[in-house]
Amino acid sequence: MIPALIVLAVFVLLPILYVVLTYNTLVALRNHIKDAWANIDTELKRRYDLIPNLVATVKGYAAHEKEVFERITQLRAQCMASQGSPTQQAADENQLVAALQRLMAVVENYPQLKADRNFLQLQQELVNTEDRIQAARRFFNGNVRDYRNKCQTFPSSVIASMFGFESQDFFDVEPSVREVPSAKFA
User: Fold this and answer.
1) Among 16, 88, 92, 160, who pairs with 151 as Cys (CB 3.0-4.6 Å)?
2) What's the chain look like in SS3?
3) pTM listed for this prediction
4) What's the topology of domain 19-177?
5) Tens-of-pLDDT digits for all 186 residues of the chain?
């Protein structure tokens, strides 16, 4: 009786147990791939949202600085050319002084020009985002590799084909996307 149970276990139960364990492993690996892709998708969306917002912020600030400098230059020229009454010249000078005060407030509040910091922040955020995308891509590709190994090695390949586990593709990036994108401000 006991030898019959051992034979039954070896020839029936162990293969069934192997099939169940392999099936569950394949399902878990497939779910890891889906999770890893969701991480890539999240990081790509971060890039898509982050870059335009940071660029707009930096451009907005740089435009503000440009406006201050242009306004000062314009008012200086206007003051130098002013040949009107003292009241008219005073009005021109008051505008120039107000513009200079705005400039000094910018300099006092932002000893290292705020625009430079924003440009550095933009560059750093781009690098961080690209690094996060690369890390998520490596994680995804590692899961795909493990899944493909399980689907393609014998005897688990038999179970994978029996239950319709399809091959998954790696997330390959075109060479032009592998470098950190450059943000150019015209």
Assistant:
1) 160
2) CHHHHHHHHHHHHHHHHHHHHHHHHHHHHHHHHHHHHHHHHHHHHHHHHHHHHHHHHHHHHHHHHHHHHHHHHHHHHHHHHCCCCHHHHHHHHHHHHHHHHHHHHHHHHCCCCHHHHHHHHHHHHHHHHHHHHHHHHHHHHHHHHHHHHHHHCCCHHHHHHHCCCCCCCCCCCCHHHCCCCCCCCC
3) 0.61
4) de novo design (two linked rop proteins) (1.20.1440)
5) 778 888 887 888 888 999 999 999 999 999 999 999 888 778 877 777 776 666 666 556 556 667 777 787 788 788 777 766 454 665 676 676 677 667 666 555 555 545 566 666 776 887 888 788 889 889 989 999 999 999 999 999 999 999 999 988 888 765 444 444 444 444
